[in-house]
Amino acid sequence: MSDVILEARGLRKAFGGFYAVDGVNLQVREGTIHALIGPNGAGKTTCFNLLSKFLPPTAGSIHLAGRDITRRTPAEVARLGMVRSFQISATFPTMTALENVRLALQRQRGENYDFWVGRKVLRQYEEQARSLLADVGLSELADSPANLLSYGHKRALELATTLALDPRVMLLDEPTAGMTQMDVERIVALIRRIRAGRTIVVVEHNLSVVAGLCDTVTVLTRGTVLTEGDYETVSRDPDVITAYLGSEDVQ
Predict the structure, then answer these.
(1) If one looks up domain 4-81+167-245 in CATH, what number appears?
(2) In the chain, what are the domain boundaries?
(3) What is the pTM of this model?
(4) Around 152, how many Cα atoms within 13 Å sit in the side-chain half-sphere?
(5) What would the pLDDT profile of 79-118 be if each residue is shown by its tens digit?
(6) Integer angstrom CA distances of residue 218 from 8, 47, 79, 88, 192
(7) Using an 8 Å Cβ cutoff, are 173 and 161 in contact?
(8) What is the pairing mode between strands 4-15 and 59-64?
(9) Which residues pair with 14 in a beta bridge?
(10) Which of 30, 85, 110, 160 has a CA-to-CA distance to 194 between 20 and 30 Å?
């Protein structure tokens, strides 16, 4: 059994008197793809934002590779090897795909991103940037401005910039949201390809994606964990069926 790399203990988040996340315990094992799913209002987005440190918890703790990161900032957590993508496009629109990835690679120089440097300094990152673009199927679009890319290609570019940070843990927020079936299939294949040596946590509404991609599925409802297991097991759980559809199977 793989070791636990990301863990939440008694995680709670209150907004006024309402608990969007209420006592969540979660263990993500290294090298797995772990999904957070649930009906609308289940608390999965809030839980995801807590794990990625974009929200502070009201109570509970979060541990990354055994280290307490509960009070760490997103930037500090990124330097520890856990980064996230966003459902809304987070690229620099007027920069080319290559420039977007190259900028992410500048993190290797330390905390200073050095926007104003000579071309000679930037060229040292170009080969690696092109390699990352090839990994996500964007080699032929390297010189295209990000704002001219299709939605599916923008999501692939975001994955490339995330990979440029060389993360140990990747948190993906709705990676296939709003995509055509062709783009969904492309992104799923891409995630499978980049999972080697990494742990991936994903919030995803598309249950067919979850079924074909994820090793472990945690189902949330009303801010608590309803059940957890592989997709085949949780999709047949009567409580999960009721939570999603009232009486029908979730498949």
Answers:
(1) 3.40.50.300
(2) 4-81+167-245, 91-153
(3) 0.86
(4) 15
(5) 899 998 865 566 888 999 999 998 888 865 554 555 555 5
(6) 13, 11, 27, 23, 19
(7) no
(8) antiparallel
(9) 19
(10) 110
